[in-house]
Give the backbone structure.
Amino acid sequence: MNIEKGKITGQQLLFLIAGFVQGSVLLIDFTVGITEHQTWMVILVGLAVSTPFFLSYVMLAKRFAGMNLVQINDMVYGRFLGKVVSLYYIFFFLLTLSFNIRDVGELYITFLMPDTPFVLLLVVFTATCAYAVSKGIEVLARVSHLFVFIGIFVIISTFPLLLDQMDFSNFLPFFELPFGKIFQGVHIVSSVPFGETVVFLAIMGSLNNTEHVIKRTYSGLLIGAATLLIVAVRNIAVLGKTQTIWTSMSFQSIRLIDIGTILTRLDFLVGIAQTVLIFLKCSLFFYALAVSLSQLFGLKSYLPLILPLAGIEVVIAATVFQSPVDHAMITQNAGIIYSIPLMFVIPLLSLLIAKIRGLPKFERGKGT
Amino acid sequence: MIFLLLIYALIFIINVPGLVKKKEWRELTFFSILYIIAFTLGLLYVLDVHIPSPMKGLQYLIVDILGIKYQQ
């Protein structure tokens, strides 16, 4: 029995995915420290590398229409091994959600509200996400296009204002960095914004119609990727070599806008857009976590788990890293390595097993 | 500390009466387990007790024990 009764349309899924990827705009900073002025290339290569894996998530969801991640794992790997695989995913959702909640806290404490207690920011943000999740996936899906348009509006409207500060020689020389650094950068990009879309395996079961789902989901991914690319190009062109010394390149480049001393300090726009988009991303992770856990426990509803999970998330977010530098260092190594199997191996393996065993038709034929 | 107690009292009031009324004992059991974990973590945090980071554990396992890492 699926735990979610709400249904979303293909178009809403498109905006959910676009907003989800846009929510990682600030996280490309993890890559910038390694790949510097070649980050734009890394994003393109990361997108190309992630595409087959992303399509495997969508094809898996399409094959097991109406089922969530835990149900798919149970059916493909059996009841025991399926639960172990699901626990691995739940652990990933739990940790990634806490990182993203922490990102918001760090964003506010560093740039917007430095005197506010850090934990208070985490509590308020997590409570807002918990409220959104309690309303169900339908509500989030219905407002997702607004979030995406806010993100696009901020990027498109600030880009021309920075044109006079851009120096396109900052992109040179091409292919300067060693292969190892490029490889690590591609791994970060294909894991953090793109690979994390594996969370949609817990959401796509709510699709009301799986027709054209591949086209729509991939369009969503492309919108998100285009946003990341524009931001990366803008930051490189404006900040050049200095971009690696800033905590947040997006904030720093937007701060440089100065049109006749009237249009200045527009970094609050980045703050608004990022808050809204990370809120969408966190809510989707939170929803996937609550639904997967409830399905694993065999509950009728995920609602009773939301508030205790929010409490756990706040404490993990507050204690998981000591500083933004610690955050970046761990994400650039262990953070992306531990999630390799669940992003790049298990979905493809599930699809292969499902094809070989003729799932789920075979199981349906048995009346299960 | 007072805020923590207030928040958790509120969470209890929001969830438990409804679950008891509907006799959803399974939901109540798993709610209680997560509630106790969340409250304990919150209490440790408020009391300034060091809470080990799961990422530090993973970092130790992957980088230090298994030796899988990117060269800096």
